[in-house]
């Protein structure tokens, strides 16, 4: 009788999705541009699902679902969330492309002086938002220095572009930390997803900011440096602007609810990104 009860309990737990085994990584980030503001980031990984929580001045959550290629961007202050997927972004990109074509067609009938003024205004508004200009590939080199964080050893590497240092990271092997293999796999899936989104966005107004965030997030650092970054230092114009440090990793049960927007939060139209 006890065996039957145990089997039934295990079955009910599995179909209810109450909790699954997962891994939680915690990283502390110091933003030197804002006077040393410290933010704690948690990355929860369960199979091909990832949730990233940033807790600082402004709390935010990002959820990536590898099965469906969906990303939830959650704003806890506004209690809203946006859903980012290939279909939605392709639709918005097409709308932006059509709008630009209509504007160009309309400008054909405008006197030269007014057309020049309107074109200057448009260029000013879109400055820094285009992703059409190609960037050179980042270069990675070993600095020949070692370090350790919480007993885990790492090797320092430098990531530069056009001889300008962008990042320095002390990375360890994926197998040196619990859940490293899972994190590596979800990182690759998320990178492919983000690349597809950038291609779909094209001339969409928000693409520049999105591209910048993609390049600076931990997933991109992991791929470029070839391992998990226990310490990361970010640079702009030769100046150190930020520093992150691995704090801990924990294997725990993670509820399925962690990979969905909180109950009561309102869905925000992605069209607002173009405003």
Task: Please outline the helices and strands.
Elements lengths: L1 H15 L3 E12 L5 E10 L2 E7 L4 E6 L4 E6 L4 E6 H22 L4 H15 L12 E11 L2 E10 L2 E9 L7 H22 L5 H10 L1 H8 L2 E9 L2 E16 L11 E2 L8
Parallel strand pairs: 6-12
Antiparallel strand pairs: 1-2, 1-11, 2-3, 3-4, 4-5, 5-6, 7-8, 8-9, 9-10, 10-11
Characterize this entry briefly.
33% of the residues lie in helices and 38% in strands. It has 275 residues and is α+β, with helices and mostly antiparallel strands.
Structural class: alpha+beta
SSE order, one letter for each helix or strand = HEEEEEEHHEEEHHHEEE
% residues in beta strands = 35-45%
Major sheet details: 12 strands, mixed
In which order are the strands of the major sheet placed?
7-8-9-10-11-1-2-3-4-5-6-12
Distance between the termini: 63 Å
**Proportion in helices:** 25-40%
Compute the average pLDDT.
77
Q: How many strand units?
A: 12
Question: Radius of gyration in whole Å, from Cα?
Answer: 22 Å
């Amino acid at each position: 009788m006890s065996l039957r009860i145990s089997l039934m309990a295990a079955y009910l737990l599995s179909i209810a999705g109450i909790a699954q085994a997962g891994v939680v990584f915690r990283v502390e980030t110091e933003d030197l541009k804002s006077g040393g503001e410290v933010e704690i980031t948690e990355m929860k990984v369960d199979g091909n699902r990832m949730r990233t929580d940033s807790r600082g001045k402004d709390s935010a959550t990002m959820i990536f679902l590898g099965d469906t290629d969906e990303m939830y961007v959650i704003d806890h202050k506004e209690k809203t969330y946006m859903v980012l997927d290939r279909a939605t972004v392709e639709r918005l990109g097409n709308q932006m492309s059509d709008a630009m074509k209509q504007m160009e067609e309309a400008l054909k009938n405008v006197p030269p002086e007014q057309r020049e003024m309107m074109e200057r205004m448009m260029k000013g508004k879109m400055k820094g938002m285009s992703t059409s200009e190609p960037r050179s590939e980042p270069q990675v080199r070993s600095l020949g220095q070692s370090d350790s964080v919480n007993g885990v050893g790492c090797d320092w590497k430098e990531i530069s572009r056009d001889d300008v240092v962008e990042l320095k990271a002390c990375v360890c092997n994926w197998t040196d930390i619990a859940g490293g293999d899972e994190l590596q796999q979800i990182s690759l899936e998320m990178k492919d997803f983000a690349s597809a989104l950038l291609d779909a966005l094209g001339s969409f107004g928000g693409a520049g900011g999105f591209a910048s965030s993609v390049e600076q997030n931990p997933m991109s650092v992991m791929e470029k440096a070839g391992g998990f970054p226990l310490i990361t230092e970010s640079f702009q114009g030769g100046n150190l602007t930020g520093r992150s440090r691995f704090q801990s990793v924990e294997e725990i049960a993670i509820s399925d609810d962690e990979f969905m927007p909180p109950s009561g939060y309102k869905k925000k139209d992605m069209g607002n990104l173009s405003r």
